[in-house]
Amino acid sequence: MKMLVVCSDFPYPADHGGRVDTWGRIKVLAELGWTIHLVVCGKQMPTPSDMKVVYRYVEDIKLCDRRSKLTDMLHVVPMQVQSRNELRHVNIDEDYDYVLLEGDYVYPILNNPLVKHANVILRVHNDEAVYFKALARSTHNVIHKLYYHMESSKFTILQKKMRKKVDKYLFISNNEFEIFHRLHPTTHSLFLPPPITKETFLESTFESKHVVFIGSLFMPNNREAIVWYLEHIHPLMLKEPDYKFIVAGNSRKQSLSWLDSYDLTNVIVHDTPESLDDIYKQGYLFVNPMRNGAGVKLKTIEAIQNGLPVISTSIGYEGTGLVDNEHIMVADSPEEFYGRIKLLFDHPERARTLLESSQGFIRTHYDHKEVLKGYINSLNTSYQMKQVL
User: Fold this and answer.
1) In the chain, what is the greatest distance between 2 CA atoms, to the nearest angstrom?
2) How far apart are CA 161 and CA 158, in angstroms?
3) What is the pTM of this model?
4) For the segment 2-19, what is each residue's pLDDT rounded down to a tens digit?
5) Structural domain of residue 147, as residue ranges?
6) Under a CB-based contact definition with an 8 Å cutoff, are residues 120 and 110 in contact?
7) Do 154 and 187 reside in the same domain of the chain?
């Protein structure tokens, strides 16, 4: 069986949420015996070494340019989609059993006459209309706010168009799947949890008193989360002996001067680190204080796999299936958030129990391979996928 995977970003290295999900799925499909061809229409071209890694799992890679211009903002199609219009002209020179779209951004491939719509599956990373509306709430820049609102409205229209061409959906968020399925019960839709990226889960030593946040530092909703923590939680935490707030993420070479207005005592920032392993290893717990967003915040799932219990806002854990006070601690007010951190600091055995419970939940419920295999088998009962690894 042969599948074409269409991406808006090169999937490797898997250094942010979307790439983690896509790269994990590519490896799972390869393990299940699929022949995979990859089409990528992104802003940055991959390095030869990154291409070499991906070629271990895929047979063919086609790259096309993402071309952005200001006039794209005037188009009825979202700018994120219009800039990938070259996908309409990619030479799809083979037949595929399925075409997997990694998100709404690659919609133009559906206007490629060589793609068979009946065999298209859409991976829903976010409800983009909701996501861009959330980004608009997160930014204080008036121009950015206007852009995000425009994209949100355009994605609402685009999603209606896509439903005329696609009836197979795989949702990363259980919440978004349930909402969609109630509205569109005849579609072949399913909740497909993100892939587990660690063969062996790690565990904190619970000695360092490091509070960790890892997320893309160029994204306004992540910046908003960090600022909220620095304004409301960090001053209270400075009373704790040996406490440090560790922030890490890809800035895409954008300035981090937005941090300068806050007390950065005991704050350590790792701008675009090559590896996150030591940051996780030295952490005591992970915080996800996001105020706005959509879909599943993979940073929460990644932190648990890497050995850190998580304290999150309601937004930061939605769609994961994790249960408050059983797998994760949830707090939306500064007082509650600080209280949860203090509780885990004072009771490391409680932190360890919380981590063990959350890791057990992920092992049980996040079997990406089995869910994906069952879904595709259900679409084509004449073919049963066989695991080759």
Assistant:
1) 64
2) 5
3) 0.85
4) 999 999 999 999 877 788
5) 2-195+366-379
6) yes
7) yes
